[in-house]
Amino acid sequence: MNGFTAPRKTSQRILTGGALFSIAALAFTACGSSSGDAAAGEANGNGSEKIGVSLIVKTTTNPYFVAMQDGAKKAADADGVDLKLAAGKSDGDEDTQIQAIENAISKGDKGILITPNGPAVEDAMIKAKEAGLFVIALDTAPSSVDAADITFATDNFAAGTLIGQWTASQLKGQKATIALVDLFDDKIVSVDYNRDQGFLNGMGIELNDNKKNGDEAPSGKYSFAGGGDYEIVGNAASQGAEDGGRTAMEMLLAKNPDINVVYSINEPAGAGAYEALKAAGKETGTLVVSIDGGCTGIANVKDGILGATAQQYPVKMAELGVKAIVDLAKDGTKPQNTQGLDFFNTGVELATDKPVDGVKSIDTAAAADICWG
Amino acid sequence: MTTLETAGPPAEQKDLAGEFQDRQTPMTRIRNVLHKYPALSPAVVLLVSIVVFGLLNDRFLRVENLSLITQQVAVVGTLAIAQTLIILTAGIDLSVGAVMILSSMVMAQFAANEGAPGILALAAGLLTGLAAGALNGFLVTKFRLPPFIVTLGTLNIFVALTLLYSNGATVRGSAMPGLLTWMGTTFPVGPVRISTGVVTMLLLYLFVAYVLGKTAWGRHLYAVGDDKEAARLAGIPVNRVLMSVYLSAGAIMAVAAWIQIGRSNAASPNGGVDMNLDSITAVVIGGTSLFGGRGSVWGTLLGALIVGVFRNGLSLAGLDVLYQTLAVGILIIIAVSIDQWIRKVKS
């Protein structure tokens, strides 16, 4: 505040200041860009040589999507595709995905592979289609079918149904006291309710709104494999991670220590729930089931930490996605939906070492051969 | 360094004698300039980064892409105006994103489910923003709770209210009256298409810059942020100023909600919560001091644009999204370091 009375010198000073920050910013952007020089060069120069594809996953904090990225990278290298990766900051982060779609259009990509974080992304997907990009949804089907040209996915509801049926068969008529270790309690995402509701459906428990967790009758009868009584202790959120799974399970055990069935949204959450059971001395005789089929999860099934898991194939989804865009760019071949479904089903298998009658499954040795992560 | 000065021509020396008490090294001079014009350093960073990204990828400087960047920063840029007002009073608002999402869900559901006309739905959203601002302001002024704690609490309250109210359902643009999605419409200006939301954001910046710079309210706001006690002794009604700041911020968040609906052509209860941090990032990079009393909304606009340019530019250059986040992190540290350095002028 103390007197700048010489205005003609101010401009000089501004210049000096400007120079200083230019240097700082230049130095910074230079280090930032060094690792991406090759890709940038290609995008700059003869972009028509390589097929540009953007893979936009839900979040990179989940190994499932990291596996998907790795699968896509391998396929891209093999097919000579210029692959760009983007991701939401967290599951449900739609804004970052919208920006990534817009950037893909701006970049002149041929196609987009996306695991949409929610319905608000779909408007941007349609814009990408209108701009001439081929849009493939991976893992999660958009809520309106026309937002993507095609979806490569597993049916999360069907995956939940498999582990529900397995659980009911294991119980052999015993009463089921059920803990539901879900994904979130501060937002609502499709994978969360599809898996949870699929599981209850598999056990033969009547659902109310199949897009809403926790609105079922708290007790009643399950009907699969002979059926029996059930009691739902409650739903608790795990954030899909070990620590969250443990906390969620501790809360549910505090509500009812007689829990003998634990559904978990994914294998890390299931492993966390198992730790809580172990700490309470209740790990034997409690059925913990999960969904995903990651290599760690399959190992946990082998060790008896999880009773069964439904295995999905994110790597296959990514490979098929990259290949579909390459085929389209080369000779115009478009991928087709699986017969009778409105998406291309990449499949799901029940992985367990305790098979039951009436539910098709593979053992952990076979599952470990094709696991991801 | 001072030897350089004395080596100058005689005329220069005379000048120096005139402002003898100011005799400084070039570094302190830069500091003084930056202290006087807080928006200068972000302006330089923005220009340099635009040039660098333009060199890295020839698509970056296309007008469509530049227009796209403005659309990508419109929501955070608007929220950052509200954040600037609050930070200028030495406060902070962690609930901006949550308030925006709550307000957007109220607008969308009111229109889509109750069949309210667009203008009424907008009014309901505006009222929601004002009510949220009033709650924050009330807790800050009447209970004298620190704004950080107050808004950390209300952040959770608003997130929960949003989910309870919306039942987690997204409302699509097609289910809403045209007025609610109007912010997403674009109109041609020469070769570019500009979105209504971006224009609205810019008008808000103009308006708030005018109010801050030219009215008594603006001067009171700076005074309260600089030194609350001194402002009180000078006869400024501190609590009334603070309350009005939180109310204005709430209204601006409602406008951001409107822009957000237009941008995604849908109202979604998910996400948006971490826009509190994005808005603080824009304010900090824009050179406004987190300690209050110093800064400008123009700096904030530059800050928001810098983040947008970095994210878009790094993306076009083919860098992983994680490097974009890394870049923003480094920018924040640099900006705060500069702020600390500039603040030494005062002592």
Task: Provide keyphrases for this structure.
heterodimer; A: 373 residues; alpha/beta; Rossmann fold; 2 domains; seven-stranded mixed β-sheet; six-stranded parallel β-sheet; 12 helices; 44% helix; disordered N terminus; B: 347 residues; mainly alpha; ABC transporter involved in vitamin B12 uptake, BtuC; two-stranded antiparallel ribbon; 4 strands; 72% helix; 3% strand
Structure description:
- The complex is a heterodimer of chains A (373) and B (347).
- Chain A is α/β, with parallel strands linked by helices and 373 residues long.
- Chain A has two domains: 23-154 and 313-336, 3-Layer(aba) Sandwich (Rossmann fold), CATH 3.40.50; 156-311 and 350-370, Response regulator (Rossmann fold, 3-Layer(aba) Sandwich).
- Chain A contains twelve helices and 13 strands.
- Chain A has helices spanning 7-34, 37-44, 63-79, 94-107, 122-130, 156-171, 190-203, 242-255, 267-279, 295-302, 314-331, 364-369, and strands at residues 51-59, 81-88, 111-114, 134-139, 150-153, 176-182, 219-222, 228-237, 261-264, 287-292, 308-311, 344-345, 349-351.
- Chain A has a seven-stranded mixed β-sheet, with helices on both faces. Chain A has a six-stranded parallel β-sheet with strand order 2-1-3-4-5-12, sandwiched between helices.
- In chain A, a hairpin with a 5-residue loop joins strand 7 (219-222) and strand 8 (228-237).
- In chain A, helix 8 (242-255) crosses helix 9 (267-279).
- The longest helix of chain A is centred in the N-terminal third of the chain and has 28 residues, at 7-34.
- Chain A is elongated.
- The termini of chain A are far apart.
- The model of chain A is unreliable at 1-19 and 25-48 (pLDDT under 50).
- Chain B has 347 residues and is mainly alpha-helical.
- Chain B has one domain (38-341): Orthogonal Bundle (ABC transporter involved in vitamin B12 uptake, BtuC), CATH 1.10.3470.
- Chain B has 16 helices and four strands.
- Chain B has helices at 2-6, 10-18, 26-36, 40-56, 63-88, 96-112, 118-142, 147-166, 178-181, 196-214, 216-226, 228-233, 238-264, 275-285, 297-316, 321-343; strands at 171-172, 186-189, 192-195, 266-267.
- A two-stranded antiparallel ribbon of chain B has the order 1-4. In chain B, strands 2-3 form a two-stranded antiparallel ribbon.
- In chain B, a hairpin with a 2-residue loop joins strand 2 and strand 3 (192-195).
- Chain B is globular and about 70 Å long.
- Chain B starts with a helix and ends with a helix.
- The model of chain B is unreliable at 1-20 (pLDDT under 50).
- Chains A and B meet through helix 1, helix 2, strand 2, helix 4 and helix 5 of A and helix 3, helix 4, helix 5, helix 8 and strand 4 of B.
